From TrEMBL, chain A:
InterPro entries: SoxG, TrmE/GcvT-like. It comes from the Bacteria. Pfam families: SoxG. This is Sarcosine oxidase subunit gamma. SUPFAM superfamilies: Folate-binding domain.
From TrEMBL, chain B:
InterPro entries: SoxD, SoxD_sf. This is Sarcosine oxidase subunit delta.
């Protein structure tokens, strides 16, 4: 018997339909190809080299020999297979496209909003553009990446996405923040 | 309790990002060691005051097990290293 499966975003019905975009904006991405890559024992440098050399995906530090890989070029259905092909026996790949939710926080107060829940120094000297780290945001573990001077990506486990958006709204209470799905 | 732990992989972080996993000094006996040795390894802890070695897992960061050497009386942290590094592990 065949079943039809329908992908539902973790934030469907929770956010969206805003009347105006404010100076600070939190955008939830609808379809982002995401995969976890764990280097095989002793193959961290080889795996890192393959991930860095390619402009089609972005590898974000998660732990030693472990990266969260995001891609705007590859589809969620094909990213893990593509990575598996390129990494060969240097690493293990697990598709996370529907297991994680990617959010982008941007605006002049982005660092001050994040500072209300994240105990990591976000000054550009300490956390420059391109840096990524797993950090605690209130009680949730998120992968935080600086994508610009005033823009950050947060990648969180799917079931925590609603709680994280709620936390970010509270963290941004003294700032002007709008929340919506990203338009692409 | 020490409030800041410098993870060798993630940098200096608040203690809330970690779980303490217990004394790092007991050495695992050989599989066929006697029951008394296994009993000591599993159940008996010294609970000293002063400089101790403990397993701390960076659950909200890199999720690695670390060995933290600290003073449980003055809160001073002496060293933090990856638990696998001390046993000739990779990462
Ligand atoms: Zn760490």
């Amino acid at each position: 018997m065949a079943y039809d499966y329908q992908a539902v975003h973790a934030l469907d019905g929770m956010i969206g339909a805003i009347s105006e975009r404010r100076v600070n904006h939190l955008a939830a991405h609808r379809t982002t190809a995401i995969a976890m890559v764990l280097a095989a024992p002793g193959q961290t440098a080889e795996a890192a080299g393959i991930l860095v050399a390619n402009g089609e995906f972005e590898a974000r530090f998660s732990g030693p020999g472990e990266w969260l890989v995001l891609s705007e070029v590859h589809a969620p259905e094909t990213l893990a297979a593509e990575l598996g092909l390129r990494l060969g026996h240097f690493a293990f790949v697990a598709d996370q496209s529907h297991g994680r939710v990617a959010l982008t926080l941007s605006g002049p107060d982005a660092t001050r909003i994040l500072a209300n829940g994240i105990a990591v120094d976000l000054h550009p000297d300490a956390f420059p553009v391109g840096r990524a780290a797993n950090v605690l945001c209130n009680h949730l573990s998120v992968n935080l990446a600086r994508t610009g001077e005033t823009s950050f990506d947060l990648v969180v486990m799917r079931s925590f996405a609603d709680a994280l958006v709620g936390d970010l709204k509270v963290m941004a209470r003294s700032f002007d923040l709008s929340v919506d799905f990203a338009t692409r | 309790m020490a409030s800041l732990i410098s993870c060798p992989h993630c940098g200096t972080r608040a203690k809330e990002e970690f779980f303490i996993r217990g004394d790092a000094t007991p050495v695992r006996p050989a599989p066929m060691a006697g029951d008394d040795m296994w009993n000591d390894y599993v159940h008996v802890r010294a609970n000293p005051r002063g400089r101790i070695r403990e397993y701390w897992q960076h659950v909200a960061g890199c999720r690695r097990w670390l060995v933290v050497e600290r003073d449980n009386f003055t809160h001073e942290v002496f060293s933090v290293s990856d638990a696998a590094a001390g046993r000739g592990g990779e990462r």
